[in-house]
Amino acid sequence: MKQEIMTIISQQQLAPRIFQMTLTGDLVNEMEKPGQFIHIKVPRADMLLRRPISINQINKEAKTCTIIYRTEGDGTKVFAELSTGDTLDVMGPLGNGFDVDCLTAGQKAYVIGGGIGIPPMYELSKQLKQKGIEVVHFLGYASKEVVYFQDEFIALGDTRFATDDGSFGVEGNVGNLLLDAVQKEQPDAVYACGANGMLKMVAQVFSDNPNVFLSLEQRMACGMGACYACVCHVPDDETGTKSVKVCDEGPIFRASEVVL
Ligand code: FAD
Ligand code: FES
């Protein structure tokens, strides 16, 4: 983990409220695992807490990394106003990242993303594909208007879409796509990032599969395991006192390791 002032080399809007930003700096040399995140200081004196954003792509040769974020509150709105040449104070990479070593060439992985949980799944899918693993993507969005990165996923493998209003792909959430798919085949591993409801559904559908990896989202402060702002409860804890820290023990856990 490093802290560095990184330089923005591009920023573009992909869809309403969705932005893609590419940064350059030595910190990219530290980035290995898909699913890790960077913790970015908002360049405004009154905003002390950093904002956690997943790494969407790592390009070591070019020494760049890309993030995709949705503007929510003041912090992400400040990010959206930045442009090429501006700098950001970045800490990272943080978190454990997805386990891609549990699979070998020829096996099949389901890669599931919902809404703003989709960005880290791209680097994951790229790395799985490089290992010779067959990837099937299940991507869920609110509507056609906010669909982004669809061509990039299609270029890596079979990609199925769902939208809440049915304006693109199947109507409803990704659960509908998954229920249909599992009637025909069972994947060797399942990776998911998205809203808690989606993660619960993924855990349920694949309850017999030991390789179900879920990326959790919790509000964070330090981002490196020191403040306990980001805890999540664990199963079979009668005292209700045991927990895991999403920032450094996660954000990725096997479905059996956490209570959603
Ligand atoms: P505000 O609501 O003004 O934020 C106030 C405070 O709450 C800040 O400290 C902020 O960090 C925290 N906060 C608010 N919403 C969230 C949230 N959903 N999760 C965690 N903290 C929150 N968003 C993306 O758009 N793209 C990503 O790739 C992405 N990856 C993430 C990876 C991880 C591990 C986590 C925990 C969150 C991720 N998020 C991502 C969510 C993103 O961190 C929040 O949307 C962002 O912090 C909101 O900041 P804000 O100032 O705009 O909103
Ligand atoms: Fe401080 Fe996780 S954010 S321990």
Automatic annotation (TrEMBL):
Functional pathway: Pyrimidine metabolism; UMP biosynthesis via de novo pathway; orotate from (S)-dihydroorotate (NAD(+) route): step 1/1
Keyword check for RNA-binding: no
Cofactor(s) the record lists: [2Fe-2S] cluster; FAD
GO MF entries: 2 iron, 2 sulfur cluster binding; electron transfer activity; flavin adenine dinucleotide binding; metal ion binding; oxidoreductase activity
Cofactor binding note from Swiss-Prot or TrEMBL: Binds 1 [2Fe-2S] cluster per subunit. Binds 1 FAD per subunit.
Boundaries of every FAD-binding FR-type domain copy: 1-100
PROSITE patterns listed in its UniProt record: FAD_FR
Protein name per its UniProtKB record: Dihydroorotate dehydrogenase B (NAD(+)), electron transfer subunit
Species assigned in the record: Enterococcus silesiacus
